[in-house]
Specification:
binds S-adenosylmethionine, methyltransferase activity, 8-stranded mixed beta sheet, 296 residues, 11 helices, globular, transferase, Rossmann fold, alpha/beta, Class I SAM-dependent methyltransferase, methyltransferase
């Protein structure tokens, strides 16, 4: 993959994922205590709730909420038993977790969007973020491109409601959040968006769903449009693999190895994408971008 160059100075990168390393150590040595702490925290954390039929989370013209794929509701992740993403405090928790992702902090995301999108002359009118979580990346796109319409989709009701609450608090009114599955964006026609982005979504899903998601991202992107990805780095040597396997065991990441074995640039090339460029790669994360071919 080619490497990106930019003259825009970037804010210093966090050295690593320190809070997670601490909690991983606790989880490895004392799994029961770690689970009990998470459960206790989640019981007390603020909740984001709404109608059980999720009617508040439908996009205009969407007749019913997305079906939940079985992997999403049957696999405990991140040391939380049961319906992890479905927990009513998940919005609150995810917003805090996401700030610790190397590409989770506002200034890092802003550097990325400005250096990789704005500085390259891309002027989008419609932007989609899949697996948008509590909106960290969608908010930056909405602020860097105030005339664009930004849509974030996710499957977690609590997360979506939290993202909406945060948008209101931040006074960002060109962003909307809806209940959809990234592997089935049939609500949107081919070529509906100028930019389609994912942040830390692909490693949370099994191989078949990664494949469906990337295909859908490319389908709903306009020919000549822009695709952006922030996610985990793909291991490159034995040491990386040992670290990744330890991380999977210790943080309960059921799909991380599927993700780590996938050849994302090859899939993008197969789908007719061009200019597939690695923007950065460091200890735990990587980001890359691509352009959908004009014939796509
Ligand atoms: C690790 S979080 C990342 C959230 C956000 N993009 C960020 O970087 O802060 C992964 C998100 O993907 C969502 N997710 C997982 N599978 C999904 C699917 N099939 N469709 C839509 N969202 C999904 C989860 O609900 C969760 O909000």
């Amino acid at each position: 993959m080619a490497e990106a160059t930019t003259t825009r100075p970037r804010p210093p990168l966090p050295e690593g994922w320190k809070p997670t390393l601490l909690s991983l150590r606790l989880a490895r040595k004392h799994p029961k205590i770690s689970r009990a702490i998470i459960k206790w925290e989640m019981q007390r954390a603020p909740k984001a709730t709404g109608p059980g039929d999720l009617s508040d989370l439908l996009a205009p013209g969407q007749s019913r909420p997305a079906d939940f794929p079985s992997y999403y509701i049957s696999n405990p992740v991140h040391h939380m038993n049961g319906l992890h993403w479905m927990h009513p405090s998940m919005g609150y928790r995810l917003e805090r977790m996401a700030e610790d992702f190397p590409l989770g902090k506002r200034e890092q995301i802003q550097w990325w969007v400005e250096s990789q999108v704005l500085d390259r002359g891309v002027r989008p009118r419609r932007i989609l973020e899949v697996g948008a979580g509590t909106g960290a990346t969608a908010f930056v796109y909405a602020q860097v491109f105030p005339d664009a319409e930004v849509v974030g989709i996710d499957l977690s009701p609590s997360v979506l409601r939290w993202a909406r609450k945060r948008a209101k608090e931040l006074g960002i009114d060109n962003v909307s959040f809806y209940h959809m599955d990234s592997g089935d964006l049939s609500h949107y026609d081919d070529g509906s968006f100028d930019i389609v982005h994912e942040s830390h979504l692909l490693h949370e899903m099994p191989s078949y769903q990664i494949d469906r998601t990337v295909r859908e991202m490319v389908r709903v992107c306009k020919p000549g449009g822009f695709l952006g990805f922030f996610d985990w780095a793909i291991p490159e040597n034995d040491r990386d693999w040992r670290q990744r396997e330890g991380m999977v065991r210790n943080n309960v990441e059921p799909f991380m190895l599927d993700y780590s074995r996938a050849d994302h640039p090859a899939l993008l090339a197969e789908l007719g994408c061009e200019e597939i460029v690695m923007v950065e790669r460091h200890s735990q994360s990587a980001s890359w971008r691509a352009r959908k071919g004009n014939l796509g």
